[in-house]
Task: inverse folding
């Protein structure tokens, strides 16, 4: 058996898992690129010649601002997101958000600093602007909570929050499937 054949079932299972969790987002991202997700189940891959291998490649190469990657990121708690970003190789590019997002954040922060400086110049005593949180970068308070002795309850709360989000997502999906089978 070739190495590619041994890898294939894992990739198909990974794509299936992603489709089960994020089907609407994947379908919308593909539609933006002129690809019909339904082609995956059509003979010969349909008009777009979509196969599991091609779908896996397309999903891996989605930009950070895509609906699918945004939904995946939204399902991560801050600690998990920070760990994910820290594990990314340096060549991974912009990470959990794109250069446009970073530029907008910098513009917003610059405006806040300008407002601060103007208020100070006219005799006010404004508070220094707080840096905007970047996706995957823990703030000072988050870092302190993780490094302190009470990090275990913080992590437990985040785990409970993530489990609750997953349960809500599963309930919504089940309700959507029941609504779809009723018609």
Result:
């Amino acid at each position: 058996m070739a190495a590619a054949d041994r890898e294939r079932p894992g990739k198909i299972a990974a794509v299936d898992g992603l489709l089960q969790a994020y089907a609407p987002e994947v379908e919308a991202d593909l539609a933006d690129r002129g690809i019909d997700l339904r082609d995956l189940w059509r003979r010969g891959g349909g008009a777009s010649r979509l196969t599991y291998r091609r779908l896996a490649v397309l999903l891996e190469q989605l930009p950070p601002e895509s609906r699918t990657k945004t939904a995946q990121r939204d399902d991560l708690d801050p600690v998990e997101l920070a760990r994910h970003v820290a594990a990314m190789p340096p060549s991974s590019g912009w990470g959990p958000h794109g250069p446009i997002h970073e530029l907008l954040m910098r513009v917003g922060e610059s405006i806040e600093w300008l407002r601060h400086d103007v208020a100070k110049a006219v005799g006010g005593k404004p508070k220094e602007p707080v840096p905007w949180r970047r996706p995957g970068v823990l703030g000072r308070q988050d870092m302190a909570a993780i490094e302190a002795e009470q990090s275990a309850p913080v992590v437990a709360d985040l785990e409970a929050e993530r489990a609750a989000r997953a349960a809500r997502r599963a309930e919504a999906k089940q309700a959507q499937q029941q609504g779809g089978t009723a018609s």
The CA atoms of residues 85 and 92 lie 10 Å apart. The mean pLDDT is 79. The chain has seven helices and no strands. Residues 98-133 form one domain.
